[in-house]
Write a structure and sequence with these properties.
Helix content: 40-55%
CATH architecture of one domain: Orthogonal Bundle
CATH class of one domain: Mainly Alpha
CATH topology of one domain: 434 Repressor (Amino-terminal Domain)
Structural class: mainly alpha
Shape: globular
Order of helices and strands: HHHH
Number of strands: 0
Number of helices: 4
Radius of gyration: 12 Å
Length: 83
């Protein structure tokens, strides 16, 4: 199996925006975790922390789930990713 590659030393490019949007909407990691779990995603609060800090890979279907849980467009999760 091929090792995951990194972008700017991160395993994902959407984590920072997930965190930013979550905080702007005053949603805790626990609340976001619960929203994801209700939709059928197997994710823990610890996983969300790792995703937000770029320490965990995120699958495309999880990006869709986070956009749905945060009530934003998928494109919002990809804004300003060069930083």
């Amino acid at each position: 199996m091929q090792k995951n590659k990194k972008f700017n030393d991160n395993f994902n490019i959407t984590g920072k925006n997930i965190k930013k949007i979550r905080k702007e909407n005053k949603i805790t990691q626990e609340e976001l975790c619960a929203r994801m779990q209700v939709m059928g995603y197997q994710i823990s609060r610890s996983d969300i922390s790792k995703l937000e800090n770029g320490k965990k890979f995120i699958a495309d279907f999880e990006v869709f789930g986070f956009a749905t849980a945060l009530k934003v467009s998928i494109l919002d999760l990809f804004q300003n990713i060069a930083n």
